[in-house]
Each structure stands twice: as structure tokens, then as C-alpha cells.
Amino acid sequence: MTFVERFVTASAGGGGNGSAGSPWTLAEAASSAVAGDRVNIIAATYTLSAAFSPASDGSRFAPIVWRGYTTTPGDASSPVVTLDINGLAQHVIDCLRPYHRFENLTVTGNAGVGGAIFGFSILGDVNVLYRCRATLTNRGVRLPGQGSQLIGCEVDRWTSGGGVQISGDNAAAIGCYVHDGGGFGCGFSAPSSGGYYYCVSAGNVDHGFAAGQSGGTLHRWLVNCVAHGNSGHGVSINGSTEGQPFLLANCLCTDNALFGIGGTNIATGTPHVILLGCGFRGNGSGDVDAAAEVFEPNGRVALAEDPFVDPSAGDFRIRASAASVLGTGYPMELMVEGIVGVSGGSPDLGVLQQRVRPLVNPGFIGAFG
To answer: Computed from CA positions of residues 139, 201, 245, 130, in that sequence, does the dihedral angle turn out positive or negative?
Structure first.
């Protein structure tokens, strides 16, 4: 589609029409942008006096795009714009509308305020965060809308709750790095009918990934993901008497304090897990909780050494010796070439992952082109 190009600068004085020669302020853009606008925001730190909250809906064929850039619109491959809520007990970005896409933005500034306050609170359906970062926030990202996606993003050093919360049908996190989280929450939590692809969850104070199992029609999966060095389980799966199996394919669970794959709420039901070619090493309580019901069409891989180049520095590339043990497909290339840039220490995920397509809904990848 052809967008209407709009512009925001930190020096705009107000009263502009959003053109390159008469740019909006950020607040004017939030109230004025409409379906089909692509709002280009010049690189700078924008200190907010209230949450950034777009006023209008996008649409399927005319989303609203918020895109950071440095010199020329479209030139950024990592977050270049920072929105700082400056200690207020509010979300940094609070989007209640559908069909918005946020690109190359960092949110920060509400760490420690308590409650259900997020860096990105994106509640509408079919919204996308692309190459964004939430750092030093109270909680990280909330993305409950159906068909919404978190792509190539980083979430780190939040202080309460979880890093990434996805709960909408057919929602997904793809190629994301979530690490060094505080509070009580895990890195990634609660996909409802969707999953995580090519994601790393490392060094968090609770589980790396967590999800429930409820009802007979919900499906959840992790594909080519890493859970490393978390203080809980690498992957925690709630038990249920009816839940569909949680599928893990080509995942690595290493050096987590509890199980590589653990179960919670065991008294209410059995966690059901399907493992396809997953690798384990150094998890404090063992590979898989014995209370879980596990089906393994492809055998698990026991790794004798740390498979990663330098996980303490965020380098999750696979060592050559580990690659030979893991077998065909380790390493190969990232599913969507170039999706993960170097942003705040994000790992080079490309050499870690096998090139596989999602098991369902591949059309959701790269929504809006």
C-alpha cells in the first residue's frame, strides 16, 4: 500500500500539519494520525508528561505506522527513538486501537512504579512491535490482541511482573531477546493460541517461558527457542486435565536453576509436553519434571558442554563442537533474514536457529509487509 508520510521532530513548536516542512509534535501525532499514515519520528529522546496513546484505529489495508529514523525515513535497523515517561506511574505507550505498527522505538522510565504498568501496553488486535526495546520499565510488554506480533524486539531489566505477556489467539513473538528481568515474573508468558519462535529468555528471576494449559482447543508452542540461566524453570507449563500438549521443537534449555521443562499446578492436572529434538544441559533439578507427561518423537540431546559462545555477554551463537552434537540444522539461518539487529546487546540469533516455518499461520509473519 502507499502510506501518507507524516513527520515528528523533537524541536517542533506545535501547530504543524505533519509534513516534512511542518512537522508535528509527538502529542499532535498521537491525536492526529489516521489510518494509512506512516509517522516518521526523528531520532531523539522524547520526555513524556503522559502516556503516548494514539487516538485513531488503523485498518487491515491501512495500518498506522510509527517509525523511528535517523536521517532518512526507513534508514534505521534498531531502536533510535526513546520515549521516556520520566518516573510517572503510567504506561509509556498505551495503544487501545487495532492495526498499529511500532518500529525502532525504545520505551523506558517507569521502573519500580508498581502495579500493572508496562513499557508497551498494546491492547488492540493485529498490532505489531518491530525492532523495539523496553528497558528499565516496571513491566515489559503486554500484547493481548488477536493476531498481534512482537518481532525482533528486546526486553530487559524490568522491575515487576513479566517481561513479555502475549495472550491473544494467533499471537506470536519472533526473534526476541528477553533478559535480566526482575520482579516476580518470567521472561515470556501465556500464549493462548500461538507461540514463540527464535526467542531467547535468559537470566530472569523466574521462569524463562511460562504458559498454562486449559481447554481442549488451545495450542501453544516454542520453536527454536533458548531458555538459559533463569532462576526458575527454563519452561514452566501449568497442568490441566483437558489441556492440549505444549509443543517444543528444536529448543535448548540450559543452566536454569530448576528443571529445563517444569510443571506447576500439578495437583490440578498433568502438564502434557511434546518434545521434538530439544537439547538440555546443567539444569539444577534435571531435564524434565517427572510429573509431566512427555511424548518424544525425536530424542532429546544431552549436551556435555555449554553450547553457547558467551551467554553472559548475550552471545548465544552455538559453539562448533555443540553444533556437531546437535546435528543437522544447527547452525542455519534465521527464518526472516535480518530480523534481529544489534540492539542493546541482542544476541546474534541467526547462527543458532534452524530454518523452519511456523507450524500454523505462517501468513502472520511480516504483517503489513
So the answer is: positive
Residues ≥6 apart with Cβ < 8 Å to 122: 93, 95, 100, 102, 129, 141, 142, 143, 145, 148
For residue 281, being part of any structural domain is answered with yes
What pLDDT shows up at residue 47?
98
Using DSSP's 3-state secondary structure scheme, residue 325 falls into helix
Q: Hey, is 142 helix, strand or coil?
A: strand
* Cα-only R_g, the chain: 20
Q: With contact defined as beta carbons under 8 Å apart, do 100 and 59 qualify?
A: no
Q: Say how far apart CA 285 and CA 97 lie, in whole Å.
A: 43
Q: Is 61 exposed, middle or buried (0-12, 13-18, 19+ CB in 10 A)?
A: exposed
In DSSP notation, 70-135 reads: SSSTT--SS--EEEE-TT-SS-SEEE-SSSEEEESEEEE--TT--SS-EEEEE-SSS-EEES-EEE
User: Could you give the count of Cα atoms lying within 13 Å of 77 in the half-sphere of its Cβ?
Assistant: 7
Question: Does a structural domain hold residue 284?
Answer: yes
- Selection from 112-116, 223-227, 294-298 with the highest mean pLDDT: 112-116
Tell me the backbone φ, ψ of residue 320, rounded to 5 degrees. -60, -40
153 CA to centre of own chain: 6
Range of the domain at 255: 144-357
Q: Residue 65 domain-assigned?
A: no
Output phi, psi for 363, to 5 deg: -65, -15
Strand-strand pairing, 315-318 and 293-298: unpaired
End-to-end alpha-carbon separation of the chain, Å?
Answer: 9
Instruction: Classify 317 in phi/psi space as left (phi over 0), alpha (psi -120 to 50) or beta.
Output: beta
Of the candidates 188, 89, 180, 210, which has an alpha carbon nearest to the alpha carbon of residue 142? 188
The pTM score is: 0.88
Question: With bands split at pLDDT 50, 70 and 90, how would you rate the model's confidence at 316?
Answer: confident
Query: Is the residue at 310 inside a domain?
Result: yes
Counting the structural domains of the chain, the total is 1
Q: What does DSSP assign to residue 35? A: T
Residue 242: left if φ>0, alpha if ψ -120 to 50, beta else—which one? alpha
CA distances from 229 to 110, 207, 285, 297 (A): 26, 9, 13, 27
